[in-house]
Queue: 2 jobs
Job 1
Amino acid sequence: MNSSVATAVSDVTSIAASGQALRRFLHGLPGVDEAGAQARAAMLASRSIKTTAKRQALDAAISMIDLTTLEGQDTPGKVLAMCAKARRPDPADATAPPVAAVCVYPDLVPVAVSGVAGSAVRVASVATAFPSGRASVDVKLADVKSAVAAGAGEVDMVIDRGAFLAGRYLGVFEEIAAVRAACGDAHLKVILETGELATLDNVRRASWLAMLAGADFIKTSTGKVAPAATLPVTMVMLEAVRDFRSAHGRQVGVKAAGGIRTAKDAIRYLVLVNETAGEEWLDPRWFRIGASSLLNDLLMQRTRMASGRYSGPDYFTMD
Amino acid sequence: MKFEYAPAPESRSIVSLRDWNGLFIGGEFVPGTGGSGVFKTVSPATEEVLAEVTSAGAEDVDRAVAAARAAYERTWSVMPGRERGKYLFRIARILQERSRELAVLETLDNGKPIRESRDVDVPLAAAHFFYHAGWSDKLSYAGYGPSPRPLGVAGQVIPWNFPLLMLAWKIAPALACGNTVVLKPAETTPLTALLFAEICQQADLPPGVVNIVTGAGDTGRLLVGHPGIDKVAFTGSTEVGKEIARTCARSRRRLTLELGGKAANVVFDDAPVDQAVEGIVNGIFFNQGHVCCAGSRLLVQESAAEDVLAALRRRMATLRLGDPLDKNTDVGAINSAKQLAKIRTLAESGDADGAQRWSPPCVLPDRGFWFPPTVFTGVSQAHRIAREEIFGPVLSVLTFRTPAEAVEKANNTPYGLSAGVWTEKGSRILWMAGRLRAGVVWANTFNRFDPSSPFGGYKESGYGREGGRHGLEAYLDVH
């Protein structure tokens, strides 16, 4: 994946010069053997992370969380409570780090911005007719612009899976590039919705497609489709960002979202990052976990490591 | 963020290390008689002496064979298959129940990572007993006639690389078919075989059906040359295998041999690169390369060589070498000082022949026997490291241009135990598999084992098959 791809991607415009050229490039990427990828991910999941390493991993995982609420029933009150939790996850322990960002629907961005004001917590907004992505390009771009105008520092867009599965890669590419332009200074996370792409070959192609089109992050899932993030899928995406950087010189982040509920799960993802992309990705700038209930399990484990005892869920806030 | 994994050692308190002053004969641990001696078995990771073990002499081997003969004639060969099956099922269950104990003991005595003994050796050993337990009462459906008969007493000699697993490969089919056995484990790794003897007692296996005699080459010679046995099964080096073949040629004893290998792992330029790299790593660094079917020759298509080797080096840099009992260790200790010396000699011949040696930065422990994961590039077919079995974590890389050249180079060895093919093209896999002269051809995977799949060699890798329906033939009177 080094020299040959380096030459190939030296000019993104030539790769995306036509639908055919883009298709040739994406289908020229090395295949992914599903059984082998699953076996490798399962082996890494058996790593035993204990004592000091576990303590380090728990704090790292907390600092990489995009604390998320994406429900029809979201209210300003709910979002403000979540922002308070994001800034200080454990009211009983000020040493617990804040999370990386809060993630909300575009109309609640102003509330979230006020909720995290004065802290390092960033505001991310889903956009582009999340979660289905079924709207005209104009509507999607308007969605993005309103989120950015309201103060979102990060935009989580969804790709047009229908177009991708139909083989209209250039359409997907152009839409991502247009959203990228509409984001201005905001970071763009591109949700591949891997549960709908189905094969790991598709995951690899979609990852490259999004990176070529300008994604700052590639993200597994909306959380609205099962399966959401899985270890093999995230591993293939980590391989893609690793190879893309060595070919293209630009580092892209990865966000695993949906289905990561326990501290044990989260630590497995950190091991996966460490042994696939490498330690340079073990940073909230380059790896995120989209989750809501995960945070409390991390905090409970953290308290257990410090006190030697498990305390019940009643001692942790529900927000 | 630098993410250092804290030590995560598996507790060794589950095993009780003691001196097994005795041999397992006729269902009991008995002391050695005249002509016997004592030897020490050490942990290759620390050189700590683990136990003293009896070295069986001629009288001991006589007693063991006599016990096996008596059990064969009075009990085991006349017992209905479904009853034999019950014992095998029981042994399989106990192997599972005591899996942690077996894994820790195996890792202590052999030096292999606990992750492998826990996830591969012990589960596969249990699986072999489960599989063959099922055959016990179905032998008339195995394709060897309506009522195939056992052979009698089997003398079995196994190597040190997978001590418990090789024991299972030998004992499970022999017992399922109605034979009784005298088994000799390797002198550097006798402990799990002795623990297995205890499991036979726990399973109430009739006395004499399984007998374990410990010792070195001399004990093995006494066993395979013993006139009281009907069948010899050996897994080990080609050199010893040839000696055993000469011994057995002068007798009516049946013989199966599973010997060395120098397997080609063939990677085409359309391979799934990340999984191919995993397969290369698993092919040669699994069990420190102490694997007869190890993918010790990487044949990579020249047009993909640069990318594959860069990815391989990057991956090798993440291998974790060290304490075999640490649950995060990927590469453990070399089994013995003797084996380490052999690996060093062959690696030095690679330097002398002009191949380029590379190992990732890696600190070797001060005590014990260690060799870093190593890859040689610029290797040609004429080099010793491309021809001789190293049986260590040393990979020789050769390149090829066309599928025909890949087949020619892969087959250009006196061995023929296994081969691997990596390509996304199904038709090419089948084309290659039909032409590779190897007992096992893995496609887009390597070093995968299953009790239902026969395993064995071509050419100097031996004859006979172990596992599957085919493996039963070695323990049935079918000629």
Job 2
Amino acid sequence: MAFLQLDALSKAFGPHKAVDGLTLGVEKGEFVSLLGPSGCGKTTTLQMIAGFVEPSGGAIRLEGKDLLAVKPAKRGLGIVFQSYALFPHMSVAENVAFGLEMQGVAKAERAKRVAETLGLVGLGAFAARFPRQLSGGQQQRVALARALVIRPQILLLDEPLSNLDAKLREEMQIELRQIQRTVGTTTILVTHDQAEAMALSDRIVVMNQGRAEQIAPPHEAYERPATPFVANFLGKTNLIDGKAVRPERIEFASSGLAGTVRTRIFQGNHWLYQVETASGLLTVIRQNAGGTMPEEGASVHLAWAAP
Amino acid sequence: MSKNGPIALIYHTLFVIFMLAPIVVVCWVAFTPEGFLSFPTTDWSLRWFRAIARYPEFISAFWQSLGLGALSSALAVGFSVPAALAIARHRFRGREAFTALFMSPLMIPYIVLGIAFLRFFTEIGLSGSFTGLVLAHIIVVFPFALRLTLASAIGLDRSIEHAAVSLGASEWTVLKRVTLPLVVPGLASGWALAFINSFDEVTMTVFIAGPGTATLPVRMFLYIQDNIDPLVTSVSACVIAITVAGLVALDRAYGLERLLVGRGHDGR
């Protein structure tokens, strides 16, 4: 049995099934993302693991023991919330020390571990500040430090980066990945951002309407999507004769499917094309290699290797 | 910051004058040397301030009002916390009915409440007692305390409490270390509003206060029924001065905005 095992986990709110028989095993040290559109049940799943929502059916086991029998306060999980949920009336150091204080860790040991963890997230100099004096990215790191300092068995991340701007989000993704590798904590990330899930995870669980559509490593899910939903959710895709073909796999060739370029958009490192063909409007992405590319209105031929 | 246009500026000025004029007139008249209410007065005198000393019942009534207001507001705020948390967080049967019940003292004319309390307290032997006054005032000021406590309970981010729970805090610890500190601005402003209403209340209190428990407004009300001299204006001026001094001291010590609006807490 896996380190963390969800068995046919379900949650119904009245007639609406938010989570519908989700089975998932997470190995120790693994980084798993629950990915899906809003309302797919990913946050409800996280809250059931955390203990804030009671399942209507199924089981959750941690190292073989029934986690549902354990009170939320005794589960020993670290959680980072979308709103960060820092204690606004406590300093950064007090925020991080809170969990240790609850565990009854002695004062000297507490101070040492708080300093260590703040160092880990690069906020060693901010211990005396209050949350309102920090930027969004810094608050995010405090929330992460506060969750990590108690050495949780599992780290739960609920859309932790969605309140940050795009550039900072990318930096934090890299940092989060590095920190998780350093401390080796088993991590479950809830996100609606497919790029974030693919960048961070060992495996992703693509969820739709309370069910797992596919559980696979990111590369595999992208290359061999199990369902049309997964294909569409994980990046752009063309459906040609019932087969999913990624836009970057289609080339301009001297022969092949004939078409006319409807629009051409330059995006720096690549060109994004919409090409009108007998199989419908296809999206084509070509790397910007510096050469000349077909213009709008040009007649082109498209070719791709069978997926 | 954008600047106000001339019309807005005139409007604001008139509004401030409208708000402050009665206070200014009362304070002005208090300094008259005449034996009646004369305005505008041409001479200045402290005659009517010295006169307060000859009426110790005004001073004892002031302390009576202060104690009554502080105690009944504190108890009302204390009762409002569990009520506000329950109403803000839980959907239970009779939730709307409870909310309406808690707010109902606002809708009943105070004169009706006064007569009802008089009858009720006479029945149970609390007529004219301080305990009776406190009970009646708790009920009257409770809606004000609840409104503000409720506002801060609704504004509280549940995930902050969830975070504390996930870090191992018991329910009691969450309440003590996280929930209560975060609603303190709401409690403080609820208490202040309740206190002002209690201190101010005369319509109901005049029925239930006894000779030994008369509050300041009741004492003043009874005085102007028999006298036309400016003594009540000098008493009023003293209350206004004490209020202003109190507000300034509070602002210096804690910052009024932080205490009443809670701006200093989360910066949002």
